[in-house]
Amino acid sequence: MVVNMGMYNDKVMEHFMHPHNAGDMENPDAVGNHGSPVCGDMMEISIKVKDNVITDAKFKTFGCGSAIASSSVATDMIIGKTLEEALAFTNKTFIDELGGLPGPKIHCSVLAEEAVKNAIWNYAQKNGLELEGLKGYDPNKEFGHDEEEEECEV
Ligand code: FES
User: Fold this and answer.
1) Model's pTM, two decimal places?
2) What residues line ligand 1, using a CB cutoff of 6 Å?
């Protein structure tokens, strides 16, 4: 299915054209990543943490406009949040912040949720933290999709 750029709202387009927090981070405290089983795209999120608060976040995403926009809002939203607050964010949180995504592109926002969780899991592992929001989290799980499989075209 071809997704028309016109299907994206202005906020998604703005984050896609001018993403926030893109690039490398020097000496991150933890790095998380996740690949989409739907399309094979990848997202990496690096974080710095002080006193259980995320003080900085950067992303590198090999993916579509929707994945890049999701990375941009996700990193914006987790900066300044405690680890538990950031763990409470879901892909729905990021979609709401973007003002919506077209149905076939919703799975792209799941990359952001999973990459954030993976980064925090990584931090917790390194620092021997037990976080409520990570209970039951499996870094190797494949997430399910309600959407039909789509190819990356935007
Ligand atoms: Fe691959 Fe969006 S992340 S299509």
Assistant:
1) 0.90
2) 36, 39, 41, 63-64, 66-67, 105, 108, 111, 152
